[in-house]
Design goal:
The protein is α/β, with parallel strands linked by helices. It has 17 helices and twelve strands. Strand 5, helix 9 and strand 6 form a beta-alpha-beta unit. The longest helix has 27 residues. The protein is globular, with a radius of gyration of 20 Å.
Length: 401
């Protein structure tokens, strides 16, 4: 069996940053995560067919430990603290925390349950393994040639945008980052894509969320927080209504000015902005979009900064929801005179092969024995089985369904 994950550094940066904050502030927190393939019925063959291979890959994953050069690399990141690296030196994922099963409808089920300082680190590994195992059965020369043709188009496109950027010295920076680890076609293909785009246009292609690739290719690792960090506070020792503020305060306490992009769509943009007062608006460098109409979202963010008498041009909007290079450029052109922008592109960079792309997620659904949820600004992204809690969450945050 060829191992898919061979390094614990082959993970997104925000897993490390969230893990550090949880270790320092809430080490006893317990979490439950569940897997879902949102387009299971549209796949070429049932995702459940990979179960046996997935079990074997998870066995191997849970044997891995951080290597010394990987620990040294993390230690050199200014926002990673020495005691956290000491913890990672002893770190090993526990196989007993993750179970895999299938149902009578041939759907794949994955459940992770355990201390969040363990459980939260599984997600990216599991999703990338599921994706690669699925596409191994569809892989052939024709698919790879089509992937290369599409990558060549991206290279031409990014060079064109670079030329447009250079033609206007007053044009704000157009910055693109790879966010594609979780749904990549394969580990090798992501490496190839990231290396190709970084070489083609280092002035536009600014880095990757994948810490291993950042280390190997001498790129900047990019990332701050994900939904699970904000969601966890729905079940920690604060009022539910204060959970967003508590999460943001916790982040500020941990990073004190570093990693200052806040995620806005855990209970919807409108509810987020009600909590994102002058204090937080000044402390955080900007906001990240991950659901809903990006133009509407960006306009709301700018209006909010202006209402607080903050110049939006001093802040950054990072977009990361279903982007292509063309969509990113169009958003940049729309907002560039009003606010700084950044773009994290995932599946359409690392899995654009002409095949149906799996829409897979592994979400926190329970924390400390209580349900938690994300109220997405996009239909279909909310993931929870407890309708009573969902209704209560909407009521508390004034979210209209």
């Amino acid at each position: 069996m060829k191992l898919i994950t061979t390094s614990l550094l082959d993970n997104d940066l925000y897993k490390f940053t969230m893990l550090q904050a949880m270790l320092h502030q809430f080490p006893q927190t317990h979490g439950v995560y569940q897997f879902r393939c949102r387009n299971n019925d549209d796949t070429a063959y049932p995702v459940a067919d990979i179960k046996d291979d997935l079990e074997a890959q998870l066995d191997a994953l849970c044997e891995l430990k951080f290597k010394q050069d990987e620990l040294d690399y993390l230690r050199d990141l200014r926002f990673i603290k020495p005691d956290f690296v000491d913890y990672l030196e002893l770190f090993q994922l526990k196989r007993r925390f993750i179970t895999v099963s299938t149902d009578d409808d041939n759907h794949l089920h994955i459940k992770i349950e355990g201390a969040m300082i363990q459980a939260m680190f599984f997600e990216i590994f599991v999703l990338s393994i599921v994706n690669e195992l699925y596409y191994q059965r569809l892989d052939n020369e024709h698919v790879r040639n089509e992937g290369q043709r599409r990558l060549d188009e991206k290279v031409s496109m990014i060079k064109h945008y670079e030329m447009l950027q250079r033609s206007d010295i007053h044009n704000p920076e157009f910055a693109v980052v790879d966010f594609g680890t979780r749904r990549r076609y394969s580990k090798e293909w992501q490496y190839h894509v990231v290396r190709t785009l970084a070489k083609a246009s280092p002035s536009i292609f600014k880095g990757t969320s994948n810490v291993y690739l950042a280390k190997e290719l001498n790129l900047t690792p990019i990332g701050t927080m994900a939904h699970e960090f904000m969601q966890a506070f729905q079940a920690l020792d604060v009022r539910l209504r204060d959970s967003q503020k508590a999460a943001l305060e916790s982040w500020v306490r941990e990073y004190r000015g570093d990693l200052g992009i806040a995620l806005t769509d855990v209970v919807g943009m409108d509810a987020f902005l009600r909590d994102f007062d002058l204090y937080f608006a000044k402390l955080f460098d900007g906001l990240r979009h991950d659901s809903g109409d990006p133009y509407e979202w960006g306009n709301k963010a700018i209006a909010h900064y202006e209402s607080l008498k903050i110049d939006p041009k001093t802040k950054t909007l990072t977009f990361s929801d279903g982007l292509t290079l063309q969509k990113a450029w169009e958003l940049h052109e729309y907002f560039k005179t009003r606010i700084k922008t950044g773009f994290g592109i995932g599946t359409n960079l690392t899995n654009d092969m002409g095949l149906t792309q799996l829409n897979i997620v592994l979400k926190l659904v329970e924390c400390n024995g209580q349900p938690v949820a994300k109220l997405s600004d996009s239909p279909g992204k909310t993931m929870i089985d407890d309708d009573t809690y969902l209704a209560y969450l909407k009521k508390v945050f004034g979210v209209q369904s």
